[in-house]
């Protein structure tokens, strides 16, 4: 789907130009059209629609579901900001494009399921010359090779993330009761499947392991359970999200390399942040308070760890925090954790907490927003390369984005697996501008190569761009415009009984 979001500083179209299927008539991206209209047909299932993941034509279910969860979370927290910018309907349309597709990937009308369709398209292995979505360079509209679809019968991480996405989206669409209930029903089925059939999805879909390997499913259990609780008010989910054994398995006490990093694989930090919001604002008491208090304490430490003075994460000379420890494609991690920092600062405001503890010190919430702003400013051009890593913003930005549709002129055929290589390998700018797309980013020395075939620099992803949208919304409008304090808890029942009515007037 192609819908542009005007977020504070620029028009944001991004890789929402990565919409698959039959695009709506109001699609305003002239160089995109209908594509992949036979997805799933080889398996006799309708898998048309959804989003391509990045510069390729694969639909990866795992990061795709995370994309919808993050976008939904940002709308739940900041719907007033979206509305003020005139973009609330647009972002809800983007979310619905994703949830409509997800509802196709399993039997959403059944009380229980035994499989989920987790991927359409094939990445293959390096050096593989079999026609697939990585080896071939074709516009989505021109794909002329067979596209496989992959299912899994034991994929707790994928199914729990999908449940989180549908549950969070059900809150976004609470004004559409029928659709909201449909999303809740689907999320319920998915989460039960995730709990009953344990396993990592890449064991069933090994093609995904090279690109989106999942390191475990315990974090998705907490993350999914939290969103299921917020969507339904069913305390069973809250009990699960606050079970000490699950928290331990998820690594909630820290001590592992990527602890504190929020991304498409690691949901623990996001779960701890949103459950800290619940703990601070709802005070649920026994039997939830012990683990929730642990999540709060860990969240406070994680927020401290983001700050450069504590040297938990390395910072490049140009000021970018290396949340992925110097590995390629850093900006999706920068955007995700900048969003959490800005969001948590707003949680502090909502609970009238002007400071939070960092060891023996107490730091003002403004420090968190300033940190988040510094990281987003780096993405937008405040960096040694003086380049905006968001296409179309400022005068200097990447012009050779690793993206099949953007790199091939409209009306020029790219049928034939290698026909498009001449467009991939040329030094000319992309003929189609992917406005608003955040690319993968520079290396750990702040160096950037605007080379189309080097995806480690120039490829955008929908998960990374969803996090950028969330961070931009969180930081827009000034520091005094915080989160919506109530919507996320709209389905959560009161924890204490209502006070009894006053006694009748005394009469002698």
UniProtKB/TrEMBL annotation:
Domain Glycoside hydrolase family: 20-472
PROSITE patterns: GH9_3 (PS00698)
EC number: 3.2.1.4
Position of the signal peptide: 1-21
Keywords: Carbohydrate metabolism, Cellulose degradation, Glycosidase, Hydrolase, Polysaccharide degradation, Signal
GO MF annotation list: cellulase activity
Catalyzed reactions per annotation: Endohydrolysis of (1->4)-beta-D-glucosidic linkages in cellulose, lichenin and cereal beta-D-glucans
BP term (GO), one: cellulose catabolic process
SUPFAM superfamilies: Six-hairpin glycosidases
Class in the EC hierarchy, top level: hydrolase
Active site residues of this protein: 450, 459
PANTHER family found in the cross-reference section: ENDO-1,4-BETA-GLUCANASE (PTHR22298)
Family: Belongs to the glycosyl hydrolase 9 (cellulase E) family.
Name this protein carries in UniProt: Endoglucanase
Native species: Ceratopteris richardii (Triangle waterfern)
